[in-house]
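Priority: medium. Attachment 1 of 2:
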């Protein structure tokens, strides 16, 4: 293993959205053994680098589900943006259908000024259709959204459409299963975009050529590391493209069963330091092989 790529939410981060001391120490142990570390996340670069700095982790970063790649020195290596026609089409549709959304550049995260109102309205519809929905998901989602770095509020869609910024991802959120499926079905076959799912309540649109897997392959080539020597660990559907590229694929213990079946290894859950568990297990196997060689 010469390059180790880890997802953030549900993987490196525990349920409190923190990187445990055990995970930090394991990543540093891997680095001491010459392993390059990469963060591969659906979050923005600003958010990912903030998490890394807070945990004192020096890593390459694949952000926005593969739309952007940055070296561990902070140099932008690759960018896959959304064309203006697709941006306008999706944004108009999101406004017309009253979805909450996030639109990202490499530095900023744009949200509607009435984010809380949109989410509360959506939750009321979802709760009416499914009374079993837990009440805390609305507050949990709102807290998670506003905990992110680089947030800018917009008053209307023209704030985006009249901008000359390069946008790399659009995320839509709904608590209602029917609205979620409607959006996922609509954009799963859109000509210029790829649709990925990174949580139970969202769907994301990125450039059709962007994915965590493609960007992981790009980073491996940049570092002159063969894919057979790359390990990728994650828990959700947006990690599948990484699993298909990496020579070593690892599903978290908290991943769904259909994700686990794809992977060559299964670790323990994110609340049991699944990243550290895999690194130590893998390193110990290497030491045993060296001792018996």
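Attachment 2 of 2:
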């Amino acid at each position: 293993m010469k390059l180790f790529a880890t997802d953030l939410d549900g993987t490196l981060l525990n349920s409190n959205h923190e990187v445990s001391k055990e995970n930090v120490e394991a990543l540093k142990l891997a680095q001491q053994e010459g392993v390059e570390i990469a963060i591969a996340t659906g979050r923005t670069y600003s958010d990912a680098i903030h998490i890394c700095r807070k945990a004192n982790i020096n890593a390459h970063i694949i952000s926005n589900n593969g739309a952007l790649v940055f070296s561990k020195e902070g140099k932008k290596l690759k960018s896959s943006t959304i064309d203006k026609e697709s941006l306008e089409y999706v944004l108009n549709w999101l406004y017309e259908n009253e979805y909450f959304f996030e639109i990202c550049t490499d530095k900023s995260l744009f949200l509607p000024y009435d984010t809380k109102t949109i989410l509360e309205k959506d939750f009321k519809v979802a709760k009416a259709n499914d009374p079993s929905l837990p009440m805390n998901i609305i507050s949990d989602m709102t807290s998670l959204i506003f905990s992110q770095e680089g947030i800018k509020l917009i008053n209307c869609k023209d704030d985006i459409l009249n901008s000359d910024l390069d946008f790399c991802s659009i995320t839509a959120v709904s608590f209602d299963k029917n609205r979620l499926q409607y959006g996922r079905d609509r954009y799963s076959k859109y000509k210029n975009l790829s649709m990925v799912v990174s949580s139970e309540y969202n769907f994301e649109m990125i450039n059709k050529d962007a994915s965590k897997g493609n960007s992981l392959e790009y980073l491996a080539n940049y570092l002159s590391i063969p894919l057979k020597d790359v390990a990728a660990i994650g828990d959700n559907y947006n990690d599948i493209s990484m699993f298909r590229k990496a020579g070593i694929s690892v599903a978290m213990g908290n991943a769904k069963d259909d994700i686990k079946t794809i992977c060559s290894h299964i670790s323990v859950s994110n609340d049991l330091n699944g990243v550290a568990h895999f690194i130590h297990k893998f390193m110990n196997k290497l030491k045993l092989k060296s001792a018996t060689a």
